[in-house]
Write a structure and sequence with these properties.
With about 120 residues, the protein is an all-alpha fold. The chain has a single domain, classed as c-terminal domain of poly(a) binding protein (Orthogonal Bundle), CATH 1.10.1900. About 75% of the residues lie in helices and about 0% in strands. It has five helices and no strands. Helix 1 runs parallel beside helix 2, helix 3 packs across helix 5 and helix 4 crosses helix 5. The termini are far apart. The relative contact order is 0.09.
Length: about 120
């Protein structure tokens, strides 16, 4: 079996990795091996944090809903229970948006939930 040299192919591969890590500090953007490690780690973080972002946003929405609900004299858990009983199908993202941007509409939702 003859030896195959990977001159142009290896060069393209190295340039691709170095392009991805452009902007990182020190050898992480200059040396192929360190750049490759940095790239693998950053891609791993990106994958993980796409899931974490969903968690963080849901926590933010719940916090905003709870703050708005307490201004109207009801706790978050009682509000969600009342909405379920009243068959009000608004997701937390929209409910948090209502609490921040349109307090009157949010108060109307809370009034319906309190009735139920």
């Amino acid at each position: 079996m003859s030896r195959v040299k990977s001159g142009p192919t290896g060069n393209r591969r190295h340039k691709k990795i170095l392009k991805i890590t452009k902007g990182q500090f020190g050898t992480r953007s200059k040396l192929f091996r360190r750049a490759n490690e940095a790239m693998l780690k950053s891609l791993w973080y990106a994958t993980r944090d796409r899931r974490v972002r969903k968690r963080d946003l849901r926590r933010l929405w719940i916090t905003r809903i709870n703050a708005g609900a307490r201004l109207n004299g009801i706790s978050y858990s009682k509000l969600i229970f009342g909405m379920r009983e009243a068959n009000i199908l608004i997701n937390r993202k929209m409910l948090a948006d209502l609490a921040v941007r349109d307090p009157q509409a949010f108060a109307a939702v809370i009034a319906k939930a309190k009735e139920a």
